[in-house]
Amino acid sequence: MIPYFGDYPTSATVYIPINTFDSNDPAASVTVTNLLNTDVHIHKDGGTTQRNNAAGITMTIDYDSITGNHLLIIDTSDNTVADFYQAGHEYQVRVEGITVDSGTLNAWVGCFSIERAGGVLALIKAGTTIQGNCNAALVALNLDHLCKVDTTVAADGDLSDYVVDGTILSHIMTAGADTSDYAASTDSLEAIQATSAVQSVLETNNLDHLCKTTTGVAADGDLSDYVVDGTILSHVMTAGADTSDYMASTDSLEAVRDHIGNGANLTEAGGDGDHLTAINLPNQTMDITGNITGNLSGSVGSLTGHTVQTGDSYAIVSHADYGNAKLVRSTTPANTLDVSATGEAGLDFDNIKDATGAHTLANITVPTTTSVTNRVTANTDQIEGSDATDQIESAGSAAIDNAISSPTAGSLGWWAQWIGQNVVTKMIITEATGACELYDRSNSSLGTVPARFVTDGTYTTRLLGVV
Q1: Structural domains of the chain in order of their starting residue, each with its CATH number
Q2: pLDDT by residue (tens digit) across 238-265?
Q3: Is 22 helix (H, G, I), strand (E, B) or coil?
Q4: Residue 87 and residue 77 in contact, taking contact as beta carbons nearer than 8 Å
Q5: How far is Cα 431 from Cα 292, in angstroms, rounded to an integer?
Q6: Would you say the pTM of this structure is higher than 0.70?
Q7: Do 308 and 301 contact (CB within 8 A), yes or no?
Q8: Residue 250: what are its φ and ψ, rounded to 5°?
C-alpha cells in the first residue's frame, strides 16, 4: 500500500521518507546505491506523463547517517516544468533503477495532493462555499427559522412544517409532542407567567403569603388560617404541629438566637431532658433552678432557702439528712476536725482547751490498763474493795509503790505494803474450817492461821490469830 502524505497548499514542501532492507532478511536495513534526484519520477493525476526534471527535488541517502533511512524532499514552488504543480490535483511519486542489496528496483514511494477538490484546504480558501454549505444544512433542518428567519406563521398558527411532530422540540412545546396543538397565546412562557391560573394555585395553597403578601396577623397571633395544622411547615414551626401554639416572640429563629446566644460557649448538647453539660459560661448574673451534680468553679452569691456558715460567707445546704443539719465544724474556722476515709473523726488535740467548769462524763467505757507511766497518788484509806476477792495485782512491789504513795504507818495501806514486801502474796480462806492459809512470793505456803468465831446472837465474827 502506497502511503498518502497529505493535502498541501500551493508552493508547499513535501517530505517523503524511504526505507531499504536486506533481501535475505527483511528485518535488516541496508543502504542504497544509484538513487539520485534524477531517479525520482512524479506523475500528475495518474497520467503517464511524468516530470523527469530534477529541479526542486532533493534526495538524501542514509539520512542523519542512519543506514537504510533516506529522505526525499519535493519543493512544489519550483516551476521549472511550467504549471506542473497546481491546486486541485493529485501527485504520485516513484523511484526507478535504484540498487538495493545488489538488486535493481523500481518502486512507488508515496503520493500527495495540492488543495484537492472538495478538501478542507480548498473549502477554507474558497470561504463562501463553506458558508453556503452551512446555510444549506441549516435550511434543510429547519434550524434557520429557530432564531433569525421568520416562519411567517401567525400567532397560534400551525408550526408543524417547521417543527415536525415527535422531535425533541415538539416534546418540549406540547404535552402530546403534536406541534399542531401548540398555541402561543396560552402555551408560551410569557403566557404561562402571566396567566391568572398560576396565581390562583399559589393563593389556594397560601403560598402567596410565604414571602410577599402579608397575612395581617400580629406578632404572636394565630397563624392557623395560613399554615394548617399537620402540614410540613407546621411541623417545622411547632413541636406538636399545632400552628396556634406558635409564638414569634419565643419560637422564631431570631428569638431562639437571642435566647441561646451565638452558641460559641455551648460545647455539648445534653442527653435526656432539658439540660446542657460541659458548659463553659462567662461570668453570669442569673438564676439557676434544679440540681447541679458537677463542680462549680468560682463563688456563688447565695442559694435560695439555705444558710450561711458561721465564720465565712459560704452557703451550706439545708437538708434533713446532710448539709447544715448534720454539719460538724469548729467554732473557729482555723481549727480542724479530720475525718478518715472510713468515717472516724480525729480531734485536733493541740486545740482542746480546759472547760469553763467541771463537767460530768457519763457512759464512758475505760479499757483494762496494763501499765501506768505516771503514778497515781491517793490516800491509803481511799482504796476500797467490796470483799476479800477484790485484789490489787502487780508484777512486784515497785508497781504497788507507784500506785500507793507514802502510806501512813499503822494504816491498812501501810500493813498491806509491809505484808506485800515481807510475807504474804496470797491468802486463801477455807470456809469449811474458817482457817486462813498464807503464801509467800514463791507461792509456798507459810502456814495456816486458825480461826475462832464469836457471836452476839446477831452477827458472827471470825477472829484470826497467828499460830
Answers
A1: 4-122 (2.60.40), 127-194 (no CATH), 208-260 (no CATH), 302-332 (no CATH), 392-464 (no CATH)
A2: 989 999 999 999 899 888 888 776 555 4
A3: coil
A4: no
A5: 78
A6: no
A7: no
A8: -120, -25
